[in-house]
Design a protein that fits this description.
alpha+beta; 6-stranded mixed beta sheet; 17 strands; 7-stranded mixed beta sheet
Length: about 350
């Protein structure tokens, strides 16, 4: 005797659920872009020429009005001007693949364990490469030449430069290449405690976070030149990211944002070739943030806002390199005045390496 046939209703998983998984998977593979200030599609709406002009607060100088003066002179009135950092959507990172009917039936497991992770990792690698290229290719007002035997002092020198340039003291990171990582791993000054906690989600960024030193979170990136490191604040660069719209003609498509990473996933079936196609992509743009320098003019006893803008939120460190303070060709205009006023004409004597004495040997 045969039992009754039981029909099981299969619940179809909506595309937005899969896309959300894809966005989360992409975020877990990122390191360098997560160190930048992120701007999403909401900031992009209404922008012209593919460009987002990010508003940066203006800077005003302070003045002194003579105590009990005769009021013959008016106060100095300065014009307030907000600045804009233009970030252009210049890239479309994507991954496209397909499955034949035969592959779907015999080789394919499911979207969340096979294709989506592979596609998400591919898109994440592209974003990572682009972020590193922008970081390495940027102009730096201060560069510190580093020595393996003097790394702590060199890091302190980078900290001193950031402080004098007025960089934010919160959200500071020391992003290092593989050679730096090797040296830092053996240093007693590095706090290797697990800062993320046991409940933190596993991600490439958490794995790259190796400790703290002198107020910096240390993050390693194997994509950086091995002999380079960057002391930067989270506002030194802007990472613009948005998901393109989903065409009405694509039923299996959606766009989502997961923890700041926006993705679009399109899935359709190519009838004449009997295969299913999957495309994942995201728009992105990355730019450096520059600021005018603010300093005290001792001669004229007044505060000055520099005419030119400089990279004041990041310092480059290079093993075997040489110190450079506002001397690059890109630092034009009033660079000489700025570096003198900020006290950044040369390295601090306190951070200069001194070889151990050989007396008595």
């Amino acid at each position: 005797m045969y039992g009754s046939l039981i029909l099981v209703a299969h619940e179809k998983i909506k595309p937005e659920k899969w896309a959300q998984v894809a966005a989360a998977l992409t975020e877990r593979e990122l390191v360098v872009p997560l160190l930048f200030t992120k701007k999403g599609v909401g900031d992009f709406k209404g922008a012209r020429d593919d460009t987002l002009n990010m508003r940066v607060p203006g800077v005003l100088p302070a003045h002194s009005y003579g105590w009990r003066n005769d009021r013959a002179q008016e106060m100095i009135v300065d014009a307030y001007k907000e600045r804009k950092v233009a970030v252009t959507f210049g890239g479309d990172a994507y991954s496209a693949t397909e499955l034949t009917d035969e592959q779907y039936e015999f080789d394919f497991d499911n979207w969340s364990e096979t294709l989506l992770p592979a596609q998400a990792k591919a898109v994440a690698r592209k974003l990572e490469y682009e972020a590193v290229d922008k970081l390495v290719g940027a102009n730096y007002s201060v560069e510190v030449g580093a020595k393996p035997e003097n790394l702590v002092n060199d890091i302190v020198e980078a900290r001193r430069a950031l402080n004098l340039m007025g960089a934010p003291k919160t959200g500071r990171t020391l992003l290092v290449g593989s050679d730096w990582d090797t040296y830092l791993q053996t240093m007693d000054e590095v706090n290797h405690a697990n800062m993320a906690g046991d409940v933190a989600a596993q991600s490439a960024f958490q794995d790259a976070l190796i400790g703290k030193i002198k107020g910096f979170n240390i993050v390693v990136s194997d994509e950086l030149p091995s002999d380079e490191a960057y002391a930067l604040t989270d506002s030194a660069f802007v990472f613009l990211n948005a998901a393109p719209h989903v065409p009405d003609s694509v039923v299996g498509g959606t766009a989502v944002s997961e923890r700041g990473i926006a993705m679009r996933w399109l899935k359709d079936y190519e009838t004449l070739r009997s295969r299913e196609r999957s495309v994942m992509n995201t728009w992105y743009g990355i730019n450096q943030v520059k600021d005018p320098a603010v300093y005290w003019d001792k001669t004229n006893t007044t505060e000055v806002v520099s005419e030119s803008e400089y990279n004041l939120r990041a310092v480059k460190l290079k093993l075997g390199g040489t110190d450079a303070y506002f001397t690059k060709a890109s630092n034009t205009g009033d660079a000489a005045k700025v570096k003198k006023a900020l006290g950044l004409e040369k390295r601090s004597a306190a951070t200069t390496y001194k070889a151990p004495s050989t007396a008595g040997h």
